[in-house]
Amino acid sequence: MMARVERDVFHKTLHKAFQAREKKPSLPMCQLVKLSVSGDHAGCLMSIEAYDGDNYFKALVQATDCRRGEVIVDCQTLLRIIGEARGPVTLSTIEEDTKVSLKVFSDGCSYLLHSTPDDAGFFKEPKIGKLMASFSLGGKELREMINRVFYASGHSDTRYTLNSVPFIFTDDGLILVGTDGHRMALLKKKMETSTSLPERRNFIAPRRWLTSLMQIVRICDKEPEIAFTDSHALLKCGTTMLISRLVDGTYPKYDQVIPKKCESFVVFRKADMIRAIEKLKAIPIERKSYGTKILACHLGFSLSATLQGDYSAETDFKVESFDGPELEFGMNIHYLHEALLKCKSSIVSLGMTDQLSPMHLTETLDNESKVDLGNETYEAVVMPMKLDGVRRMS
What we know:
By secondary structure, the protein is of the alpha+beta class. 18% of the residues lie in helices and 42% in strands. Strands 1, 2, 3, 4, 5, 6, 7, 8, 9, 13, 15, 16 and 17 form a 13-stranded antiparallel β-sheet that branches. Strands 14-10-11-12-26-25-24-18-22 form a nine-stranded antiparallel β-sheet. Strand 24 and strand 25 form a beta hairpin. It starts with a strand and ends in a 12-residue tail after the last strand.
């Protein structure tokens, strides 16, 4: 095999392949990457494949000085070598007896990597079955949609469904949900989709597929296509393809978490609350224990936080409107802060019932800033924290 490729394109593609697969000590082949060239001519496409048994990545990059062949080497080592390269990279295989090695040459320096045989045919595109639902959307808009709910999903929860995001197809569009059990973000978008399902269906996309997807579409100049089968999630963007096995399980009933009725509603400017939270975050309080006491009343919001009696902070600001009884409650303001950052509107509404009930955050139309909420409906739910000194107001 032989191919000459541009360093930057090859490095970015190789990095996406490295990120797409998961480290599995029991499966050494998942640490490798397969490079293959199918033509013998001046210009061709070189294929880059990575697979870990659940996530399959394949991309094509332009190459010159091509010679047919394939090689399988350690992905991380090759990525480091290309990271140090300057200028075009020449890849060629060297055969000695029954062993095959990959020679990497660039900027006057050459490296030699031992190849691993693929006798069992490990690097094969997985069979995914019949497509059941699909849609296409601009890369920037797709990333924004996922980002607005992905932040609320779990990171390393033993309940794997909480580390994921379900794609729920409805009659008029799509619903995305993210939750870690302490907070939830929900996005409803009216859009055209293609589905062969008689009713809406929940496809739980794994976390690694989502993170790889956002990296791929960020630099892809084509419109991404998303599709789901009964067992897999598929992304196609230009000459790049990513296939991942769906999370097997039942996602929590998110609609039961959203408060049906709130006793108090407060409408405020997003920038005012974000500024108040940033003032409190000046004191050194760990993220997980960042409990803050909040008083909501007709005069406005009052926020205070204390850490073991050593540090304390307090701030307040006026609100646009308040309806209902005065209420004092505790919450992790990191969760509230992240939810606010995902709001497009500059005016936000927060619904509350009591100190032990979830808080419901929704966007409000703002004529002053002329924000176009489009066909999207965004809402977030933050669970309260039980803090000393927080009581129900009468």
